[in-house]
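Form P-L/3: holo structure prediction, ligand N-carbamoyl-L-aspartate.
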Amino acid sequence: MKHILRSQQFSRAQLEELFAEANQLNKMFDDPALRVGLGQSLRGKVMFPIFWEPSTRTRMSFCAAAGHLGMSIYWTDAAGRYSSAAKGETLEDTARTLAALRPHVIVLRHPENGAAARAVRLIKQFGHEAAVINAGDGKGQHPTQALLDLYTIQRELGRLDNLSVTVGGDLLNGRTVHSLVYLLAKFKNIKFTFISPKNLRMKKGIKNYLQRHGIPFRETTNMYSALRSADVVYWTRIQKERGSENTTLDLTIGPRQMRWMKKKSCLLHPLPRVDEISTEVDKDPRAAYFRQIEYGLFVRMALLKQIAA
Ligand code: NCD
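OUTPUT (holo model):
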């Protein structure tokens, strides 16, 4: 495993190994005696987070993960405005430039589908060794978010098989839900319920993939039926910046909707939330979206150890 481009690339065995490593890193991190050594693990390795789109969690989570392992981090924010992209430089030339500076890892977020894959082709062509991590490519994928989402489910519910998973929000344009569905499809006895406004239904390609692999899913606009049988509820915002029109379907989860959910279940969200989960829900023990961020730190540390060591 070198470049991280899409969640289909992971085998179940690789996921299990990654999550075991994340558990181990979490333990070491919480033990003051062991934590010191962690900071030496990737000393001398260099990471470039290059983000063309806004980010709070993904960028800072990668920076924190790299920092805790002793990597050096050099970045450019708002790459579309502050890198030479603003002067008309192509993604290809930017990627080639970055790779020539010999980082070990490039973490790339870009508004175009397939941007990270294009960067990899160039890096290979010119014989550079940087590993590229897709941190979100437009309406495409966000594989490391899906890795931490799965790890969260494992930590919260203790299993990744036999799950009824409800995925809600902008399923057409949200890249996190695309990566999540592909990744969960690798586990046994997974049933999906998709709930979204009619114009923002799950991408056709993903539904075809589920059909081909015999994985059951249904689509609904009924909140009660979507929430009541779910072990995992994964909620997302409407991606207004990606052209999602205003919709009339109210997908807000508040205390009333939480009462419909099973006692033993969890509510995840990649964040940022806008108004689709009310803040009153935050204190519900099933609301796992802030714990999700902490779990994500250890998943990204594990990932960096695997690809940069
Ligand atoms: C998501 C993204 O950028 O795709 N955020 C994240 O990385 N946690 C979700 C979103 O923007 O809605």
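COMMENT: The pocket of N-carbamoyl-L-aspartate is lined by residues 57-58, 136, 142, 145, 174-176, 236-237, 270-271 (CB under 6 Å).
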